[in-house]
Amino acid sequence: MSVAETAPTAPTAPAPATSQPVRRPSVRRPAPGVLAAGAWLALIALAALLLPLLPGFDPLHGDFAHPSAAPGPGHWLGTDAAGRDVLQRTVAGARASFAVAGLTITVGLLGGGALGLVAGWFRGPVDKVIGFATDLLMSVPSLILVMITVALRGPSLSVIGTLIGLFTVPHFTRVVRAVVLSLNERGFVQAARMIGTAPLRILRREVVPHVAPVALTFAFTATTVAIVAEGSLSFLGFGLRPPEPSWGGIIAEGRTTLGSAPWISLAPAAVLCLTVLALNYLGEQLRSKGGRG
Predict the structure, then answer these.
(1) Which of 19, 175, 247, 272 is the most buried (most CB within 10 A)?
(2) Tens-digit pLDDT profile for residues 216-261
(3) Cβ contact 217:286 at 8 Å
């Protein structure tokens, strides 16, 4: 055997690794519909908050020289039969609708969320009692009861918002209860129970963070219900007393002049429809993303 055959071969140097470009995670841009809906809601909210602070803003002031004037430079959405600016009244009506919606969500989310947590966590007799109470409340004709209450106590945004919120409590309860029941079987909740974690701590640390996104998503639906309900009550004469502006009230004021001055009703009706459409679209998008997650 020759020396060349027995000599160890020199180790070959490893081939230089080719440099791979670092891929940055792509940022998903919101869909155009989401941007449009968010921009519309932001525009309405800013107008309702900021325009009343401007000098000369008075939705109750009547320009008697220009009653039922068509839209133009002086009055961009025209005036009503009393010469009041429709744009200013529509903006002021947004404040009434959002106030009722905010109170509705507060009552429904807090009341229904608490009942849903209790029913889903303790189950058994507690769940049956809460379920019976929610079924009983859902069987009551809500708008009729609100109209009766308003007729007895007088129109008030706090009364209307609280009553509408009360009738959203069963829906929030059912949504939250369903999520809590599913979380009861999850491993992290069972593990927390096995190591002796206090129930309130489990609810606060493990359950509520998973319930909150679902409840907030459903809040979009409840907001549209509150806005439509307030508009319907005002249209029927059970909302704010004229001349206080609300979307439903302005629409009702202009129904007698639809042939000669349609802008009086069409302007607040268009704003109401677009606002409800934007809220429904955003809620649906959040719901679909939650389902995929």
Answers:
(1) 247
(2) 999 999 999 999 999 999 999 998 888 889 999 999 999 988 999 9
(3) yes
